[in-house]
Structure formats: C-alpha cells, structure tokens
C-alpha cells in the first residue's frame, strides 16, 4: 500500500530557505554586512550570532543612531532602519540565536533607540519619501505621438533597457517629471483599481501582493475625488444642496445648514 507521506528530499530548513524571496535574502545579507563593518570598527571580531544579548543590545542601539549611507554619508529613512532590524532578526533566527530583537526584554534598549531615532528623522523631514515614484496622470498619457510609432517590436529587451524605459519615455514625452519611474506603471494600475472601488481581494490576485494592507498603501485621494469633496463641503457651508444627493441626505444637510446659520 502506497504511503500518504512522501520522503523528504531536503531538510525542512533547506526547504524553508528555498521558498524565501531572493531579494529578501540579498537584502538580509547586505544589512548584516553593514552591521559587521560597524562591529569591526569597534574591534569586535565575533560573528553576530556569537555575541551575547546584553552586549549585542548595546552594539545595536549605537548602530541604529550612528549608521549612515555609504555613498553620500546621509542618514537613512526611518523605514530603512526598521528594515535593518528586520534583517538582523531573520539572520539570527536562522542561526538559532535563541533570542528575539523584536520581542525579548534583553533588546528593549535597541527598540527604544529605533523609535527615538525614527522620531528624530521625521522631525528633520525624513520619511516623506520625496523621491518615491508617482502614478501617471491622465494628462501625461494623452500625447500626440501615440499613433505615429509602433509600441512593440519582436526582440528581447535587456535588463538595462527595462530599468531605464520609464525615464526615457518621460523625457521623450517632455513630461519633465523625474519621479516617473518603472514603478509608476504599477502604482497607476493600483491607484486606478482602488479609486474605482475594486475589492482589494480581487486586486491582489492581479498585483501579486500577499496581504490586503499592501493594497491600502496605494490608496491616495485623486484630483477628481478632491474636487468632489470640495464641492460637498462648499454645498454644506453655502446651503446649496446637490440635485444628485439622495433625499434623506438632502434633508439632513439642509437641517445642518440651518443650525449652522443660527449659531
């Protein structure tokens, strides 16, 4: 009789590792390497997983406050500091360290240092993501040259070409918008679906996101929505009620306007 259970071809640990996102693996190793450089500057020769929690807590607290970017020697964004801690947590878990930076009391100082540093960075204007990609507007899409040249051709596209394609398209269309990047296409799709009130459960099947919260991150107020809200507020303050407004809401708004005028 055939067994219901297949023999393991690899260890459970190897199977889990194989399923981990490659970019996450790469980011984890990069962030750990930065920390190892910091430890070397402190004449610390032990590996990360060999350092006792009490000592590692002190190192991490100082690292979070002092770390700077390699190229411009600038401070990191608040979210990048969180990514450092998440990377260290993943690395130590794989090494069976036995302690959690995120949960255990031994690393309370590290968590407080992270929280304080994030507040300090936000006061300095960090965290607003000034270089984040923007969605493509309807005006940007309307160009006169769309029907003059073929959009596609039968030849492979290289990595460098893909990385620069949105920038080149933006320059040729004379849009003068440096924040139009490759991610702008994805952001446009997400914002369009969200604004059209497509259920998030449907959107993630198209976008590939793993959780619904990721969809909410794309929710922004469009220009049309801003105009609609402005007209609604204007109608409330002036007493002008839209003809399209349901009768029940009309009565409620008119009553609120009368009360406001009495005050």
From TrEMBL:
Keywords: DNA recombination. The keyword Transmembrane does not apply. InterPro entries: DNA_brk_join_enz (IPR011010), Integrase-like_cat_sf (IPR013762), Integrase_catalytic (IPR002104), KIAA1958 (IPR042838). It comes from the Eukaryota. Residues 116-140 are annotated as: Disordered. Residues 134-223 form the Tyr recombinase domain. Pfam families: Phage_integrase. PANTHER family: HYPOTHETICAL PROTEIN MGC115716 (PTHR46963:SF4), SIMILAR TO RIKEN CDNA E130308A19 (PTHR46963). This is Tyr recombinase domain-containing protein. It comes from Porites lobata.
